[in-house]
């Protein structure tokens, strides 16, 4: 009888631990649950000589690292949208969820070269419709984002954003919207009209609560708490860790910084993405660090088959 009781208590204890591990996800909508506990990389796809993306190379590295998410930036080439269609079914076969990031007006011509997010450029209602259709055909396309969203709020008014999201959800109500929002933008009061429009936040960590840098990981937890307080604890917060330079911080980050920031972000937030994807051949140290962390996290959060 005592052995049976002990067994029951052990099962209850393990069940309780599992429930605690996923407690933050219990109140999430379907869209929010799809991005919860994501870990993966963002941008910097390998290219073939014809400038199409080397999908097989990218997939092999994501699988090797055990990433469960990849954030596909449409900005670098006119064929990025076309290549995304080829990437999605292969990523799905390997249980990799996909986000798509578009650039805002502040990163479009004439400010940044000649390319915007092609082919629909700043027509975000068209993008919303097309991404909704695509995600309906490929359920592993779970989210879309707009880079530097918090720096473009005068353009992305709540009314304009609501119109775009309604079009996306007409095609696929499961497609999440997770814009990029910097810490410095939290110094301006949040317009409450945005509250019900966002499914999560992609938070690029730059230690902005002290001074902008890619050296100090020590502010991760406090900045995540402050971001959570700004948006509300119910909104998933995904930390974007810089493994490459930021525009005004051209020296980039060191491997030890990447590792420590990843660890802190994983403990404090609801997911972690690495900007940018690091290649095994050109950045072996950072590649190995990211791989070790992802392997550890994958053991905690097995992929759904």
TrEMBL record:
SUPFAM superfamilies: (Trans)glycosidases (SSF51445). Residues 1-18 form the signal peptide. It comes from the Bacteria. Keywords: Signal. This is Lipoprotein. It comes from Pedosphaera parvula (strain Ellin514).
